Amino acid sequence: MDLPLEEERAEIFRIHLAKRHRQPAEFDLPALVAASPEFSGAEIEEAIISALYDAFYAKQELATAHVFAALSQTVPLARTMVEKVSEQRNWAIGRARNASVARLT
Fold first, then answer.
1. Three-state DSSP class for 23?
2. Which of 25, 42, 70, 77 qualifies as a cystine partner to 47, CB 3.0-4.6 A?
3. CATH code assigned at 35
4. How many domains does the chain have?
5. How big is the CA angle at 76 (ends 47 and 6), to the nearest 5 degrees?
6. 1 lies in some domain
7. Containing structural domain, residue 69
8. What is the DSSP letter of 74?
9. One digit per residue, pLDDT tens: the chain, 105 residues?
10. How far is it, in rounded angstroms, from Cα 21 to Cα 6?
């Protein structure tokens, strides 16, 4: 339980780009990771889907700029519902397994 760390967000971007038949190596993943600090995996996936639509309508191939624009137009739930997220984090202490291996150390 919690939001993905940088390494985990990079992997989420790789997974969802590859799932949509795009080569993750063709994208500036460090920039996308830096632009998504409070994003959940689902929000990252939705940004990629939104970017695909934008690229399609522009008759362009999906690029980092499309994904970056989609991220910048999204306010993550961790920001809009900061109190609820904080409550969940507090509740999870000692009750839920941490989603991030890095947070266990």
1. coil
2. 70
3. 1.10.8.60
4. 1
5. 75
6. no
7. 6-104
8. -
9. 578 999 999 999 999 999 999 999 999 999 999 999 999 999 999 999 999 999 999 999 999 999 999 999 999 987 777 677 777 766 767 777 766 665 555
10. 23
